[in-house]
Amino acid sequence: MTIDQSVVDAVVDAVKQSRKYRDTSEETIRQLAVEAVVEHKKPKPAEKAVRRRLHSIMAPYLGDPDYTAARQLLTEAFVGGNEDAIRAACRDLMYTHLSTRERLPILDTFYRDIFAVTGPPRRLLDIACGLNPLAFPWMGLPAAGTDFVAYDIHEPRVDFLNHYFILQGLPPLAYVKDVAVGAPTESGDVALFLKEMPRFERNYSGHGRALLDAIDARWLVVSFPTISTHGGRNLTNRYRDFFYQIIDGSGWPVTELLFDTELVFCAQKVSGDA
What is the dihedral of CA 162, 163, 169, 172, to 10 degrees? Predict the structure, then answer.
């Protein structure tokens, strides 16, 4: 099928110039534009289709901090050198995004219990990371000797996370990356995919297993919310079934961890002596 690249370019330019989506990865917008042009042919309806998809993918309703103010807050906390102040600043910023806000009550045990299963990673991948890298002070990992590789499609968020990594004494390894377009090429000991699989499958139906297969890590840590955002409906059994359907036939040994707000699956892709 021949695709009119001039129409694709026009759609990309229009969306990229909009105030709402100008900070979104161009790779993401272009991929959606190609799909929309195939379906709609003309620029205007294709642009509308891309905007609809981006609203679901970017999920602006989950919240975001003012990144200029966030940089200043963290810089001041780290200059002071007080660990309690640094943790307080990280908690305040994680509170601005629904996914990390829901994890705050369990932070003290969340990574402790996960790494008790996987072992402490020297190289940690955080896929579709959001603000989760700000939880590093609760991970019990040394900054020296740890690579924390984070991927997100929101450009200002990635810039902010690299600023945070430098303050934290970590290499600035946050990247603008759309894992729906291509899986990360970096390898790791543990790869996190936290509370993103339901939305990923909703936006890219049937692609969840392919992504997990492509991730080069000894352990996959995939989590799901236990309670629905609206109405407080318990989702534990639904998402347990959902996860095992996705990995059916993989042969990966899985350890399940159940927290008050999050259901976590630690899947071992590669044995420790491999």
Answer: 20
Q: For strand 187-194 and strand 123-126, is the pairing parallel, antiparallel, or unpaired?
A: parallel
pLDDT tens digits, one per residue of 81-91: 899 999 999 99
What does the angle CA 181 – CA 187 – CA 190 come to, to the nearest 5 degrees?
100
The span from the CA of 71 to the CA of 158, in Å, is 12
> What sign for the dihedral angle of Cα 99, 97, 186, 182?
positive
Last residue of a domain, one of 34, 58, 82: 58
Is pTM, for the whole model, over 0.90?
no
- Here the tokens at position 198 are 């339901």
- Half-sphere exposure of 117 toward its Cβ, with a 13 Å CA cutoff? 20
Q: Strand 174-176 relative to strand 147-152: parallel, antiparallel, unpaired?
A: parallel
C-alpha 96/C-alpha 103 separation (Å) is 12
Residues 122, 243, single domain; the answer is: yes
Distance between CA atoms of 33 and 49, rounded to whole angstroms? 8
Q: Which residues span the domain enclosing 250?
A: 67-268
